[in-house]
Design goal:
single chain; alpha/beta; VC0802-like; Rossmann fold; eight-stranded mixed sheet; 9 helices; binds S-adenosylmethionine
Length: 350
């Protein structure tokens, strides 16, 4: 006898975010007018349900994860299964696929879970379930070498799963949209992780190779204790680190970093540099004004910086800031990174 499972459709989109930022992601999805959006506070995910009775969410309507500020991950789902029996989650999933799977099969299967109190313990379930699921999919011919789609599963609880599919290469490549990085033992601060993630997420490989080369120059405003400057020096850049506070000894020991004791809002570079970095804790409006000035006066070619967010109206604050920055930058990219808390990271190019 088949296990009792309820299957819910029409389909839609699922987006993952940092817990506490569901409202912001929900607003971003709502304004795309693709369907009704549901978001539960601190669930770390948002569900959009299509407003049309279709069997598949139209591929051309799926936003790229890079274009949603507060989404770590986003993909279209075609079925939600509830009441999965704990002793056999496989059977209802295979039954749903027998009915709904894409004709050409899938190149791979990826299991994800939300980064929430309820979701994090599901990591183990995803790990142990991945192998039997993969074997069963192979046995039924659903895993096809060279197929254009990837099968995605998101466990919301241990008995609820969303099934989705996404063209290979379209979803965020890190499971759950989480860029896991190891802090080097010699790193002067945890901020190093934020900067490394920013360069991985906001630039592609080709841009990183072109824009970030040994021998280039950078200014780091609000540099102390020196994590960002230290990382730039590790990549071979020469850095002017501006801060009234002290830099860690390991930072000065790189030999590539000059410490300037000054106010980052007033200090001017003696000559143009390749990169401006800014991590000063200030109102977004002031930081945008400052970075806009550096870009429009060509004091730097690229900027990577943080905007600290207020508790309320976070999305509106970012929207206003970005609109303003676009007046002096030809390219602006914004993401709420895994290592960001109450802030977003911005890349801008003059
Ligand atoms: C979050 S910390 C920077 C951490 C740094 N990115 C790292 O990787 O270690 C912010 C720094 O900005 C500095 N700061 C704040 N306002 C500043 C200003 N007006 N001028 C210079 N530095 C400032 C503070 O002294 C503090 O050291």
């Amino acid at each position: 006898m088949r296990a009792k499972t309820s299957k819910i459709q029409p389909p839609g989109l699922i987006g993952l975010c940092r817990p506490g930022f569901e409202r912001e992601l929900a607003k971003e999805l709502t304004r795309m007018a693709l369907g009704a959006v549901q978001a539960e506070q601190n669930s770390a995910f948002v569900v959009l349900t299509a407003d049309q009775p279709v069997s598949r969410f139209a591929r051309e309507r799926v936003p790229a994860w890079q274009n949603l500020i507060f989404a770590r991950q986003v993909w279209p789902w075609f079925a939600r299964l509830e009441d999965l029996p704990r002793h056999d989650r496989l059977e209802p999933i295979l039954a749903a696929l027998d009915e709904l799977a894409a004709a050409g099969g899938y190149r791979a299967v990826v299991l994800e879970f939300p980064d929430s109190q309820i979701g994090r313990p599901l990591a183990k379930l995803c790990r142990t379930f991945a192998q039997p699921l993969t074997e069963a999919l192979k046995a039924r011919g659903y895993l096809v070498e060279g197929a254009g789609l990837e099968l995605r599963l998101l466990f919301g609880t241990s008995t609820t799963v969303w099934l989705g599919e996404v063209p290979c290469g379209l979803a965020c490549p890190w499971p759950g949209g989480i860029v896991r990085l190891k802090l080097p033992r010699e790193a002067p601060s945890r901020s190093v992780l934020k900067l490394v993630e920013a360069f991985k997420v906001l630039l592609n490989e080709e841009e990183r190779a072109r824009f970030l080369k040994p021998g280039m120059s950078a200014v780091d405003l609000g540099a102390a204790p020196g994590g960002w400057s230290w990382q730039l020096a590790k990549w071979g850049l020469r850095v002017t680190a501006v801060d009234n506070a002290r830099l860690a000894k390991s930072v000065l020991a790189t030999g590539l970093i000059e410490h300037v004791v000054a106010d980052g809002f007033k200090w001017r570079p003696p000559k143009a540099v390749d990169w401006l970095l800014c991590d000063m804790i200030e109102r977004p409006q002031l930081v945008i004004e400052l970075v806009g000035k550096w870009l429009s006066r060509r004091w730097c070619r690229h900027a990577m910086f943080n905007l600290k967010l207020p508790m309320k109206n976070r999305l509106e604050t970012v929207d206003t800031a970005v609109a303003r920055l676009r007046l002096s930058a030809k390219e602006v990219r914004v993401k709420h990174l895994y290592h960001d808390r109450e802030e977003v990271t911005v890349y801008a190019q003059a």
